[in-house]
Amino acid sequence: MAGRVGGKVLLLTGGAMGLGKAAAKALLAEGATVIITDIDEAAGRATAAELGCSYLPQDVTDWGRWQEVIAEVEATHGRLDVLVNNAAITVFGSIADISPEDFKRCYTVDVDSIFMGCKAAIPLMAKGGGGSIVNFSSAAGNKVSPDLAAYNSAKAAVVTLTKSIALYCAREQNGVRVNSVQPGTILTPNVESVIQGTPDPEATRAAFSVAQPIGRMGEVEDIAHLVVYLASDESKFATGAPFIVDGGLSIA
Ligand SMILES: NC(=O)c1ccc[n+]([C@@H]2O[C@H](COP(=O)([O-])OP(=O)(O)OC[C@H]3O[C@@H](n4cnc5c(N)ncnc54)[C@H](O)[C@@H]3O)[C@@H](O)[C@H]2O)c1
């Protein structure tokens, strides 16, 4: 039971890389039993082997698979204490550029998945006396760009959906807390590949850095520490809140 989340059974989506992988590593170090899921089976298995946790294949947009994953967690562990809804995609484009199909795809992966994850997990968490859900929004839900119509609005929707689910759980007195996290630009391998894919990577790196008033991009651990806090009982009075960790991006 040692550690800030010792003894807790924790399910984390999109755990193969980036922020999900870093959060899984931090949660394991603080004593949680971690199950990561990811649509990328090869990367998910490799990460689980590297970190020493379990992996389940999952497309978070598939409601039937959500029900199977939660049933598998219950069959194996008998409980679920924490759900981290981290998996998402970024779809670029302005209102003029983006197709209705791509707009919908962004919402399906980034918003519908969180609705489905919470819906599937809350009954099992409540059965065990409660728990904590951490939904990944983004500072991009606060600070918008003309070229991120789908992603900006999907991430804003995550904040509001989280508040509604938090109030539902409070009304039910089921012990489940639900919060969202809003990171600024974090230097993950995918963000690095976006930088490298631009005509002038060093100019892009500088622009990504100064977008945060603090003058740099965040590190994956900056968000992993927040996820550990929200997963732990240290945050037992927090629910429905958007936790902004963004180097000041949202207030600039
Ligand atoms: N990196 C940043 O700068 C940043 C900033 C703010 C918010 N975020 C948010 O943090 C979260 C993680 O971001 P990241 O940069 O680590 O992303 P990432 O792209 O590096 O990793 C996302 C993971 O989700 C998985 N995934 C994608 N679609 C899936 C699906 N349908 N089903 C299951 N798994 C799926 C991918 O395979 C990948 O392993 C996301 O919600 C993102 O929107 C990231």
**Biggest sheet: strand arrangement:** 3-2-1-4-5-6-7
Ligands in the structure?
nicotinamide-adenine-dinucleotide
Q: Would you state the CATH class?
A: Alpha Beta
E-strand count: 7
Fraction of residues in helix: 40-55%
Shape: globular
What is the residue-mean pLDDT, rounded to a whole number? 98
State which percent range the strand residues make up.
Answer: 5-15%
Uncertain stretches of 5 or more adjacent residues: none
What is the CA-based Rg, rounded?
Answer: 17 Å
Per CATH, the superfamily is NAD(P)-binding Rossmann-like Domain
CATH architecture: 3-Layer(aba) Sandwich
What structural class results from the helix and strand content? alpha/beta
Kindly report the CATH topology: Rossmann fold
Give an account of the 3D structure.
The protein has one domain: Rossmann fold, CATH 3.40.50.720. By secondary structure, the protein is an alpha/beta fold. The model has no long low-confidence stretch (mean pLDDT 98). Helix 3 packs parallel to helix 4 and helix 4 packs parallel to helix 5. It has a 7-stranded parallel beta sheet with strand order 3-2-1-4-5-6-7, sandwiched between helices. The protein is globular, with a radius of gyration of 17 Å. Helix content is 48%, strand content 15%. The chain contains 8 helices and 7 strands, in the order E-H-E-H-E-H-E-H-E-H-E-H-H-H-E. Helix 4 links the parallel strand 4 and strand 5. Nicotinamide-adenine-dinucleotide (NAD) binds next to helix 1 and helix 6. The site of nicotinamide-adenine-dinucleotide has 27 residues, from helix 1 and helix 6.
